[in-house]
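Notes from the 1:1 (GR / supervisor)

We went over the backlog. Supervisor wanted to see one worked example end to end before approving the batch request, so GR pasted a single chain during the call. The sequence is below; no edits were made to it. Supervisor asked that the structure be written out right there so they could see what the output format looks like.
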Amino acid sequence: MKLIHLSDLHLGKRVYEYSMIEDQEYILRQILNVINQEKPDGVILAGDIYDKSIPPAEAVSLFDDFLVGLAKRRLEIFVISGNHDSAERIAFGSRIMEAGGVHLSPVYKGSIAPVTLKDAYGPVNFYLLPFLKPVQVRKYNEDAEVGTYTDALRLVIDKMEVNPAERNVLVTHQFVTGATRSESEDVSVGGSDNVDASVFADFDYVALGHLHSPQNCGSQKIRYCGTPLKYSFSEANDTKSVTVVELADKGELTVRTVPLKPKRDLVELKGKYNDLMLKSFYDGTTYQEDYVHITLTDEDDIPDAIGRLRIVYHNLMKLNYDNKRTQSNAVISADAAVETKSPYELFSDFYQLQNNQPMSDGQAAHMKELIESVFG
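Structure output shown during the call:
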């Protein structure tokens, strides 16, 4: 049985106030092309379909179009809610859609029943487990001790009564201990949301959502497919992809990826202002339409740098400096000699501490002139 594993579409997301909806529409069309080539039996969407629990209308419309595109290909579709989703909204219409092969995770009410498909090797049981917190599990298991996320997931999975003789796939949206986060994900204090991978021992494949960088957790059978798009500059070096999973006989698993190419990439550039303004002329790459984070290394601030740079880099999202001034860790404090120093000497000391370098001759002359005009 061949499956396409997707997650964390985050439809409707804005990055540095830039709407990603056009980029998301583009990448979903590309995913449909991958599906046309791979001809899978099913598609898994492991949570965070939307970026907000109440998504904008354009995000709902885009997901509707994508679901229709999948359904037209006569695939079995498995969808769960993530921590960014509303479980109730994702579950809406699930009983009607079930007949069309669209399986939506219900709101958790104490038990999870599998969806079973069959192929030449026998049954494959799919368990759709939406994002859960311990408090949600305790509500339906008042007599059990559920203190951690691991306790909660272990209890829920134990109640599934998974048959280890058959092939079993779990679709869930949690943070597995040891996995690597990126900046665009929610973080719990002290790693309190960690789930130990041992709770997934009875499954032949665990299709995870939640983390944005594609990665295996100990083995290829426990995997985050990652986001189809980059949503933070910490993901700038990631290669986004579609995960293709093939289940043969019990214990036989193949996992591979098909790379995705975005409409606009997220790019980090660093250098002096003049060099970056001329960059497209000497390296053949313009980055004009990409989403860009620029770090300037000029010692002096460039007036209206962001406006000027956007002439070349149309989607400049973020600008900062890396120079002596920003690298300074000096502590600015008064010393015993403060009362004996002139206003110019005091300002000169302040400037040195603030910028990790002395004033230039021109700055010093201007400041002396200014101080003389004020103090005489």
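Supervisor's comment: The mean pLDDT is 90.
Batch request approved.
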